[in-house]
Amino acid sequence: MNDEPEMVMGAMLSASLALVRPVGMSPQEADEWLDVALETLAHLPLHIFEAGIRAARMKCTHHAQIVPAIIEATREDLAWYNRPKTPPMLRLVAPERPIRTEPLPDPETLSAELKRIGLSQGWIVERDGRLFWEEDSAA
């Protein structure tokens, strides 16, 4: 188990408490405050906690403000950190127009079934007893 983040967090909280600690707070009360503060903030990753403690040091004037200030300062970063992380979705996009067009086969060489479908859909037209591709659909 890696206790380094907890030790760093404890040291930073202790330093912050030293800045605003009331004169009447005994060492035992300071230890209890540190224990509760560490337990309350234990869910924060170290890098997010460090940003929160810096923000708290700039605005806190009383030890009771430190933990709420850290929680408030880290709210958005923590939400981003805990967001569902899904792999990026790859999309295949067809070009707007074909890069290279293959010539269409002679409609006379198509199977009877393909000729029937082409005629019924209007892709193939019959003129003078011969089959031709409809100009609009062949383009």
Largest sheet: 2 strands, antiparallel
Structural class: mainly alpha
Number of helices: 6
Q: What distance lies between the first and last C-alpha atoms, to the nearest angstrom?
A: 68 Å
Largest sheet, spatial ordering of strands? 1-2
Parts with pLDDT < 50 across at least 5 consecutive residues? none
Number of domains: 2
Strand/helix succession: HHHHHEEH
What is the average of the pLDDT values? 88
Q: Could you say which overall geometry the principal axes of the C-alpha atoms support?
A: rod-shaped
The amount of helix comes to 40-55%
Gyration radius from CA atoms, angstroms: 36 Å
| Beta-strand fraction estimate | 5-15%
* Counted beta strands: 2
Give a verbal description of the structure.
With 139 residues, the chain is mainly alpha-helical. The chain folds into 2 domains: 4-81; 107-138, no CATH class. The chain has helices at residues 4-20, 27-41, 46-59, 66-81, 112-121, 135-138; strands at 124-127, 130-133. It has a two-stranded antiparallel ribbon. Strand 1 (124-127) and strand 2 form a beta hairpin. Helix 1 runs parallel beside helix 3 (46-59). The longest helix is centred in the N-terminal third of the chain and has 17 residues, at 4-20. It is rod-shaped and about 110 Å long. The mean pLDDT is 88.
What would a concise description of this structure say?
It contains six helices and two strands. With 139 residues, it is mainly alpha-helical. It has a two-stranded antiparallel sheet.
Keywords, please?
mainly alpha, two-stranded antiparallel sheet, single chain, 2 domains, 139 residues, 6 helices, 2 strands
